[in-house]
Amino acid sequence: MSQKCLVYQCENYKGQGLFVGDLCGPCHHMITTGEINRSSMDFVSRLHKAMPKIIAEIVQDECADSPRESDNLGTLCLFHRRYDVPDESGLGMEWVQRFLHNDFKGVWLPVYAYDHSGIALSTEPFSCPWDSGQLGVIYITQEKIDAEGLEAQGLESNMKEILRGEVKTFGQWLNGECYGYKLRYDNGLCGNHMDSCFGFYGREEAEQAAREAGAVEVI
Question: How far apart are CA 58 and CA 208, in angstroms?
Fold first, then answer.
């Protein structure tokens, strides 16, 4: 039997028309130029339908690094008897309180915790007075603002939003809300593992990254 074109689902064989190496003429033209002529439209449609879907499985990332080990704008100072939370100032709660209330130059936000079947963090107070309270603060000094050129970049209005995002991300890590994705094809022949990526804080971030990687279905 004559050799078949190497392109998946193509039905052209050597001896039926022009071949360039192991590719039939139409497939070679389509691959090298990116052009699809009318005679190839039906084939491309069949090829698209025949190609297996890429499915992403979202899984827990049990080895995710703390986001505080990465570069952050804010300095996070938290204090709790039971949870291992960082005091990145290294100076203790009393010093931080005096520091922030004595002509502090920069941007800062309080950090509150709601401790009930896990710990939730926020820069706004929680409604429950029994299981919540202030856990610490997060701040950016004016010295760091100047060094990073944040005002020159027009980011001064976003600095509090940046601090809120850092608190949210650390809270997700603290609660084990760390995920990765594994990509696979949806058919039996190609159902093996394709690719994977880990280190996402929050399931939504992992799902978005999986779709950007080509997944058409997320489970």
Answer: 11
Q: Check if the beta carbon of residue 19 is closer than 8 Å to that of residue 25.
A: yes
Q: Are 18 and 29 in contact (CB under 8 A)?
A: no
CA pair distance 71, 69, nearest whole angstrom: 7
178-185 and 193-201: which strand pairing?
Answer: antiparallel
Name the one residue in this structure whose structure tokens are 């944040």.
Answer: 150
Domain ranges of the chain: 1-51, 67-174
Which two structure tokens, joined as six digits, stand for 177?
């809300």
Per-residue pLDDT tens digits for 90-126: 777 777 777 767 777 888 898 998 877 778 888 888 8
Q: Residues 160-170: pLDDT tens digits?
A: 888 999 999 99
Amino acid (1-letter code) at residue 188: G
Q: 136: closest CA among 108, 168, 178?
A: 108
Q: How confident is the model at residue 48 (pLDDT cuts 50, 70, 90)?
A: low
Integer Cα distance of 33 and 52 in angstroms: 25
> Model pTM?
0.70
Residue 39's alpha-carbon distances to 45, 107, 116, 152, 189, in angstroms, are 11, 64, 64, 57, 29
